[in-house]
Amino acid sequence: MLLSHIAARWDIEVLFADGKEELGLDQYQLMSATAIVRFWTLAMLAYVFLEEERHRLQEQRQRHVTIGEARREIQCRHRRHVLDWLHGQFQSGVEHDAVYELLAA
Predict the structure, then answer these.
(1) Using an 8 Å Cβ cutoff, are 89 and 99 in contact?
(2) 51 CB-near residues (< 8 Å, 6+ apart)
(3) How far is CA 101 from CA 4, 89, 94, in A?
(4) Which of 1, 70, 77, 95 is the most exposed place for a label (fewest CB within 10 A)?
């Protein structure tokens, strides 16, 4: 009984630690109950997404992967897609100002 309680508590502690470190949950300031519910809903969706990505990477790499590693992997992949897109735009002759307008929209 005590061991199951400690294990459940550990999962909660890890959730809050990851939330603070990886999702910035220690930085929010909300004034209404509706805002709190919306914020936590989005934060938990982001956490579930990262957890799914962590699990996928863990199976792919055959080693333990942290939530932080999963977040960094997603960020690197996103940056790569943006750079590939920019490169394609410039290679196809799109003017710099047109690319700027697309990014600023």
Answers:
(1) yes
(2) 67, 70
(3) 56, 13, 11
(4) 1
Rounded distance between C-alpha atoms, residue 27 and residue 97, angstroms: 35
Tell the residue number behind the tokens 């977040």, with chain if given: 71
Residue 35 Cα to chain centre, angstroms: 20
49: Cα within 13 Å, side-chain hemisphere: 11
Give per-residue pLDDT as tens, 57-91: 999 999 999 999 999 999 999 999 999 999 999 99
| Separation of alpha carbons 11 and 8, rounded Å | 5
Average pLDDT, the chain: 89
* CA pair distance 29, 21, nearest whole angstrom: 16
